[in-house]
Design a protein that fits this description.
alpha/beta, 5 domains, six-stranded mixed beta sheet, 27 helices, 14 strands
Length: 677
């Protein structure tokens, strides 16, 4: 509602004049019933003012509100707007005013009581309206009529249909009185969509297309549903808000999590929303970004809302949704190009962009952020630099990008803090060199693919993928942590039990969600024990074999196009598909550590602050176990020593070694403990 003083005064005068008309009709009815002149009550000095409402035939009241213009909401006095929007007849308008008068003027209740006599109540009823108000028609009481359908008035308890007390809806009363606000029943479900920053060129083109569709539809018929499809969730909301405000509509969003599941709740909610949208000139953005296919009730609710909600509706989703009941326009919304990302960064950072000292290309290369995420990351980095002015700008912005990209992937995989460094990794020099080359491929992808042009022929084959093969405990996961720490990227372990599905097509869908989410942050994906998912493609004997091979082929395709680093680990390299191995850029074999390497692991496994006494790393290296088992033995020995309030000794390690060998179902031989004392 416009909070203008002049408008408020005009609205109040018109409303008072309209109430005086209804008051006069009640007085005339009292005179007819009693046969005596009714006591004339003092009215406003504005009863010469008249209000002419646009009405339909009183015998066929409209069942739906007039659609707001695609270029501007209905303007004018509140009473006129409401009557025009919901197509109230003169009689329905008078009924609404009678109910409003009881709430706004105490004299109306006395008039209603006098008009109904001793047998009636003090409040307005439909029976009183039929008897006292001009142009009365029974259809105004019909459930499909605007008064009841749009809940402009509410029926109280008790009495028959015509004797039931009537009451104006609180939101409608505030609207007539010119009080700004919204329906409290919608609070927490519908939220205003804020305007974002300056639109990028590609986003401006999308906005112009949406506006052109709405403008054309305003002259031809119902407004089609606009589907904004793509991965840039935040950018879709910004585009929707810009398009709505371009045509004078207020954008509001309904998120997947806020949607009720029951059909009755959906119908009630949408009735209230349609009324609110018609009164305020608003558009609805249905955000399907968090839609979970397993939540069947809410998924059905989304479709029901989109198909049956009148007015201007936009849908934000990753993929196109099937909408059968309404015309639909699909508008792709992709993430900004590299050039646009640079523009977004410079716009968001302002003069701070010059302090990146060439790191901007690295940001664009490693992080595929939406424009909205770039603005958020810039704000995060700017705030951090304000508190820590000596911090490196490039590193601060880089870490802010990592933070922005995490939420989507955190719901799909386990994030591992990469704290291990090269000093923690005990491997032969050949394997260490391979890992360093792998890090170089990730670090310099912007230089090779963009500046030198190697990425100009398409995304196929540009993904950096590696296989870490070796027995359990030989350091495969630690090597992934070292790479994440070295490259300052997030490391996510993929839970295969949550990815592989027995239902056809679900595994590909799960993989797509993971890769799409990981693209934004350039995260390192760690598929542990990958042979369970990426095994050899089988001979097709039935439909399950065919779809299993499709899953592997789909994964090969995503691995080749993934812009980040994907690491697969396996205990059995021979179990992997040869076609899959051929597409891997690096294969690193993690050997079982020899005695010298085991001694080095023992020297590094105990922290500097751990109290040690009499530990002989050469004798400890006689235990023929991998690095993972060594860490487990050392940790258990430390707890034993702490319980006994002693420093860690060989006896504690021996006890812990027996426990570890029992877990491995192996005997601890005398040769491995000779000379331990």
């Amino acid at each position: 509602m416009i909070a203008d003083t002049g408008w408020q005064l005009t609205n109040q005068r018109v409303l008072c004049a309209a109430l005086d008309e209804v008051r006069a009709a009640l007085l005339r009815h009292i005179e007819r019933v009693t046969g005596q002149p009714a006591a004339r009550e003092v009215t406003t000095d504005l009863n010469s003012a008249t209000v002419r409402a646009t009405t339909d035939s009183p015998h066929a009241p409209a069942s739906s509100p007039a659609s707001p213009s695609a270029t501007s909401p209905v303007a004018g006095i509140a009473l006129d707007r409401l009557c025009t929007t919901f197509r109230l007849s003169a009689f329905e308008r008078a009924v609404l005013l009678m109910c409003a008068g009881v709430e706004l003027d105490a004299r109306f209740a006395a008039l209603c009581a006098a008009a109904q006599g001793a047998s009636g109540g003090a409040g307005p009823t439909f029976g009183l309206a039929l008897a006292a108000l001009p142009d009365a028609h029974w259809s105004a009481l019909a459930p499909g009529g605007p008064l009841r359908r749009w809940r402009l008035v509410e029926f109280g308890a008790g009495g028959g249909l015509t004797a039931t007390p009537l009451r104006i809806d609180e939101r409608v009363l505030h609207y007539l009185a010119g009080v700004p606000g919204r329906d409290e029943r919608l609070v927490g479900l519908f939220e205003p969509v804020p305007l974002g920053g300056r639109l990028l060129p590609s986003q401006e083109q999308v906005v112009e297309r949406i506006v052109s569709v709405w403008t054309a539809a305003a002259a031809r018929g119902p407004v089609p549903v606009i589907q904004l499809c793509g991965d840039a969730a935040g950018d879709k909301a910004v585009i929707a808000a810009a398009a709505c405000r371009r045509v004078g509509l207020a954008p509001w969003s309904l998120s997947f999590d806020a949607m009720p599941a029951g059909a009755a709740d959906i119908d009630s909610l949408m009735r209230l929303w349609e009324r609110e949208a018609a009164l305020t000139g608003s558009a609805l953005l249905v955000d399907c970004g968090a839609a979970d296919a397993t939540d069947r009730p809410r998924t059905v609710s989304i479709s029901r809302i989109i198909e049956h909600c009148r007015g201007v509706v936009l849908v934000a989703s990753a993929e196109r949704r099937a909408i059968g009941a309404r015309a639909t326009i699909v508008v792709p919304v992709g993430k900004p190009s590299s050039v646009e990302q640079r523009l977004a960064w410079r716009d968001a950072l302002g003069e701070g962009a010059d302090r990146l000292n060439g790191h901007l290309d690295d940001l664009v290369s490693h992080f595929a952020l939406s424009a909205q995420s770039i603005r958020s990351a810039a704000l995060d980095a700017t705030g951090h630099l304000a508190l820590h002015p000596d911090a490196a700008v490039g590193a601060t912005v880089w870490d802010a990008c990592r933070t922005q990209a995490r939420p989507r992937l955190d719901d799909l995989a386990q994030r591992i803090d990469g704290v291990a460094s090269w000093d923690d990794l005990v491997l032969p020099e050949a394997q260490r060199q391979l890992l360093r080359e792998l890090a170089a491929h990730v670090r310099h992808r912007a230089t090779v693919y963009e500046r030198w042009g190697f990425g100009g022929q398409g995304a196929r084959g540009l993904g950096t993928s590696a296989l870490f093969a070796g027995a359990s405990g030989t350091g495969k996961t630690m090597a992934a942590e070292v790479l994440a720490h070295e490259l300052r990227l997030d490391l996510y372990r993929i839970d295969l039990s949550a990815v592989v599905s027995k239902y056809i097509g679900e595994t590909e869908k799960n993989l797509r969600r993971i890769f799409d989410a990981a693209e934004e942050g350039g995260a390192i994906l760690l598929f542990d024990e990958a042979d369970a998912l990426f095994g050899k493609r089988s001979e097709v004997k039935d439909s399950h074999d065919r779809y299993a091979n499709i899953e592997i082929s789909y994964l090969l395709q995503r691995m080749e196009s993934y812009r980040g680093l994907a690491i697969l680990t396996t205990n059995l390299k021979s179990a992997l598909d040869t076609a899959f191995l051929r597409r891997l850029r690096f294969v690193v074999q993690f050997p079982f550590p020899d005695e010298e390497q085991r001694a080095e692991i023992w020297r590094r496994v105990f922290p500097p602050d751990a109290p040690l006494e009499g530990l002989d790393t050469q004798r400890l290296a006689q235990l023929t176990v991998a690095g993972g088992n060594i860490r487990s033995i050392a940790l258990n020995a430390a707890f034993l020593a702490a319980e006994m309030r002693e420093p860690v000794r060989m006896s504690h390690v021996l006890h812990a070694a027996h426990r570890e060998y029992a877990k491995l179902e192996r005997p601890l031989t005398d040769a491995e403990t000779v000379g331990w004392g």
